[in-house]
Amino acid sequence: MALRIERIPTLRDNYTYLLVCEATGEAAVVDAPEAAPVVRRVESCGARVRQVLSTHHHPDHCAANPELAERFGAPVLGHVSDADRLPGLTTGLEEGDVVRVGAETARILHVPAHTRGHIAYVFDAAKAIFSGDTLFAAGCGRLFEGTPAMMFTALSEKLGRLPDDYRVFCGHEYTESNLRFAAHVEPENRAIAEKLERVRKLRARRAADWHDAAAEEMTIPSTLAEEWATNPFLRARNAAELGRLRAEKDRF
Ligand SMILES: [Zn+2]
Questions:
Q1: pTM
Q2: How many structural domains compose the chain?
Q3: Which of 96, 138, 147, 163 gives a 20 to 30 Å CA spacing to 73?
Q4: Is 84 marked active-site?
Q5: What's 229's domain CATH number?
Q6: What domain range is 229 assigned to?
């Protein structure tokens, strides 16, 4: 595979990703709330960071943008509508735009709902989706700036239409609590029960500090096939059902 994807644990349960084009050594950072762990990883692997990418404007996804942009001399990319609130933004993206990381390319999908300017980066050759706080393993983001109908479109009509074997790299390690909710709303679903069992075992051995997390305790990436089998929000038949689930999850 020509795009190497390194998972960097940041804050308490965030994922920052370092994407390295193995053909060229050029790299991009996705969703960086703190700079130090990213800089350490970049230096240890000798990647040349050419872009800082953001899925949305929340600080736990982009607070380190200005520092990383300055350090690496790199532009900051995010949705064009977030120009006034996404730290360091230099390049506004829209649905259908293409971002190059070395020899690899990503398509931009605009998936407003968690925030109005939320985007996903889809690397077709690498079969990798960076979904931020829109699609989580077994869950979806809260509806801070959008409606259930908008999230239904984002999940079922955009991200969910991508091929089953695409990997889902989301913004947080929320999988275990998401699966507990999934098992609550779909108690007969064996795929959910089995994945919850597996994830509980992985997470029982987790490091005291998320920054020290071992690869074995990370439940990300998932795949779209797994999500269709285990994610109640992707499985919702319509916006009303998704809205009911989201409201119930907010209280769970
Ligand atoms: Zn967020």
A1: 0.97
A2: 1
A3: 96
A4: no
A5: 3.60.15.10
A6: 3-251
